[in-house]
Design a protein that fits this description.
This protein is of the alpha/beta class. It folds into four domains: 161 residues, Substrate Binding Domain Of Dnak, Chain:A, Domain 2, CATH 1.20.1270; 149 residues, 3-Layer(aba) Sandwich (Rossmann fold), CATH 3.40.50.2030; 234 residues, 3-Layer(aba) Sandwich (Rossmann fold), CATH 3.40.50; 29 residues. 48% of the residues lie in helices and 9% in strands. It has a six-stranded parallel beta sheet. The longest helix has 35 residues. It is globular.
Length: 671
Amino acid sequence: MARKMRTPEERSVDPAAQQMLIRADELGIGTAFSRADAMPPCNIGAAGMCCKLCGMGPCRLTKDGQTGVCGATIDTIQARNLIRAIAAGSAAHSDHGRDMAFTLKAVANGETEGYRIKDVAKLHMVAEKYDIATDGRTPEEVADELADLYISQFGQQRGETIVYKRAPAKRQKIWKEQGVIPRGLDREIVEALHRTHMGDDQDPEHILNHAIRTGLADGWGGSMIATDISDILFGTPAPILGQTNLGVLKDDMVNVVVHGHEPTLSQMIVAASQDPEIIEYARQAGANGVNLTGICCTANEILMRQGIPAAGNFLHQELSILTGSVEAMVVDVQCIMQALVGLAENFHTKIITTSSKVRITGATHIQFHEGSALTTAKAILREAIDNYKNRGQVEIPDVREALVPGFSHEYINYMLGGSYRASFRPLNDAIMSGRIRGVAAIVGCNNPRSSQDYLHNKVTKALLKQDVLVVQTGCGAIAAAKLGLLLGEAGLDQVGPGLREICETIGIPPVLHMGSCVDNTRILTVLTQMVEEGGLGDDIDQLPAVGLAPEWMSEKALAIGAYCVASGAYVMFGGSSPISGMPDRMSDSDSVARYISEGWEAIYGGKLEFVEDPDDMIRRTLDHIDKKRAALGLPEYDPNRWGRSGDRRMLELEAMPLFERQQAIYGVAAD
């Protein structure tokens, strides 16, 4: 029996995506959406009930009490599968951080082309956290020592890594008591794989305890290192005007899409695309220049620092090629579909791989080296420009949205108090008074098995109406941007009265774009600063805050979830659960799910849950926020107390006759 294929409207809520999906159907070209429709997930593997860790299997546990050939129970198998995914996600993020540390070292020693230390203030701030002297030293000397320190964190075999010391003091104490502070970033990932080899660790709770340690090596390790160094080399983000969606592609320019996660590549291609030599080369080819855009987290990196437009999030990578207007898609690592090469054969687009870690059969490979970065970037752009003459029929959706990204934790601190009074005090006060009910971090991927952006946007819009401030990273941030929620005061008619007052007063969007997926560590820093500011408890688990990944699909998302739980956050994932089991056939299939929720909460104050129903996700978020408010002794949330101040109130007063205005302001008419 043939499976039902969804309509374009069912596959995505984005009109630009819908237009390209219609074109794909007309051309008879498959996409991730049609492949997801045609290939149902394995219900046994999806539920975490399959073990293929040795040659005696694969073992499928579909009956109550059944074990694998070696005797492994469903709990052990699910715990092993989960920690292996967390280890892989941590490896991806931390390898990113390692490469950034090597780049910082090379820049400090003058071994690169085109890079420089752009944010010396951030360099000094980070160095001082680790007692690295800055007085009387050049930025390069400080950067060299910081790079050595960061590089050492990956291979360290004993002791404790140093990044965790940036967490709240009480949180550090919990980690010490539980023995989960990472010794070295690589060591914890290797040990996770060793423990799950056949015949090793067979206690589910013991396995999951190390999952926490592995996740911490990512969040308070590799990812935080990556964010620090990106800011030092390329500048700490601050608000900047940008655009997003497929309408940012240009029919009269050479379109180059950068896709992946490494800012070392994308930042240099930005520089090369603005070089007069490259612009003239494009004009000689008949184009009006080079139009650079991004997909996925590379899009976020160049969007929040240079305002380079984002063509879309994860599921737009194929759709951008379907426009027929992309001369080259330049990729590095992570979230890159192998299907791109086959898809590009229907058009003129060149797929160019650049990383020593990533090759795709049929793609063009141009190896990127930091030592010849600008030269290599120009060579890549010339390859794209030479392809402009091969362009065929073009169909670019006339859909784009303006946005303001770039809300780093440093800028949030500044925007709340200015240069001389930078502080998180106003944010804490707004939460304590009830103008802001709480904070939600809505992050993560797109998943073609759900309707693209639907879950992200449904949850975001619902929470905004309830006065919940939303911060976003990664593909989730681009989803909200396409909806118009990341532009100034746009969408404030969809925001609760208390949050609207805050947005109007400060002049910020109701959704704050904080960067790429590794930049979830910025959210950890914000939560830590809220704790240190006072009034909202003395640890992250006391804050009225929730983390959400409504459309997750990546192992990196599971690593993020683990380190956020370890930090004290309540984390919910949408869609299906990789450890759900089959309750209709197995009575003991939910013990791992219970442990990562109730068990982890008892230890760390944070918990991880998989919630398929978005309405249930919204309800649980608000219940958790209100529970934390009550525990802190804060006033019960009451939206009726707010909404009569700020810009909106001033406009109302200006529209009143003089007599009524005086009564409204002073209570009585003035003489």
